[in-house]
Amino acid sequence: MKMLEAELVRVRTEIDKLRVEEALLLKMLGKMSGAPALAPQSRTRSPSVKPVVLDIMREAGFDGATTAEVDDIVRQKVPTVAKDTVGSILSRLKSEGALVYWGERYYEKQFAPKDEQNPFDRIRAVN
Q1: Of 31, 32, 67, 108, which has fewest CB within 10 angstroms of its CB?
Q2: What CATH number does the domain located at 44-115 have?
């Protein structure tokens, strides 16, 4: 999972570099042709993602979801969402008490595990 996330970060970084390169090439083409420079596609603001995240968490129910899982689903529904938006929304919803973070998964409060013990506390090394 971490390898895929790292690859995704690498690809997104490369996309950002290519957008800068595109803008430069368009500007150069405009100057060489004497025509006004073509503007690269401007970013538009994504629709509100918070309701989408809440719907996803409600659907996740007792299984909960990781940040990466929620991010993947949100990107299918809202492809223009900014890089760290989903993680920020999940964190904010946790701070507001709407979500519970337990065992590297987020749960809607009503579906959160009742066991207060961290699930990783139960794992013991066997020597």
Answers
A1: 32
A2: 1.10.10
